[in-house]
Write a structure and sequence with these properties.
single chain, 160 residues, alpha+beta, Immunoglobulin-like, 1 helix, DUF2141
Length: 160
């Protein structure tokens, strides 16, 4: 009987650079794809601090509006929070742009802004840019410019 000798197969040096370069190209493409997705999903935060809250009375409702036609009717986003301190900060994750802001403290927690028979709010209110309207609030003056990855605004509640 003849003995069979098995010799290990060596890869030629010609194949190694080709496989390595294919691997590097694949890693590069995946890296670019992953970094593109990371940039695409970068969060933009619109931060609003509300001051003048009557501590322990109901909840604070902060609404932002994208379009004038929806102003004070259909908010783009809403955040509700307990009125457990005199200052609160909310964070909206939104695209850069301009947003009108409306805030009120719902002291009796009925989910709506209580008003007198002629439409004057009975509960504390506030608007973007600390705009204090005479008459019904308008969209334009209540708009804030969210043009950075993080924008910070402060709104002080007041009694009308």
């Amino acid at each position: 009987m003849k003995a069979v000798v098995v010799k290990p197969v060596k890869l030629s040096s010609k194949n190694r650079p080709l496989r390595t370069s294919r691997y590097l190209v694949l890693c590069g493409v995946l890296g670019l794809f992953c970094s593109y997705k990371t940039i695409e999903k970068e969060e933009n935060r619109l931060m609003i601090t509300i001051e003048g809250i009557k501590k322990g009375k109901g909840e604070v409702i902060v609404s932002i509006f994208e379009e004038e036609k929806n102003w004070l009717k259909k908010p783009f986003q809403v955040i509700k929070m307990n009125a457990d301190s005199d200052t609160k900060t909310v964070s909206f994750s939104v695209e850069k742009g301009k947003y009108a802001v409306s805030v009120f403290q719902d002291e009796n927690a009925n989910g709506e802004l209580d008003q007198s028979w002629i439409g004057i709010p009975k509960e504390p209110i506030g608007f973007g840019n600390n705009y204090k309207p005479f008459g019904p609030p308008k969209f334009g003056p209540a708009r804030v410019d969210h043009n950075k990855s993080e924008s910070f605004y402060t709104i002080t509640l007041y009694k009308a």
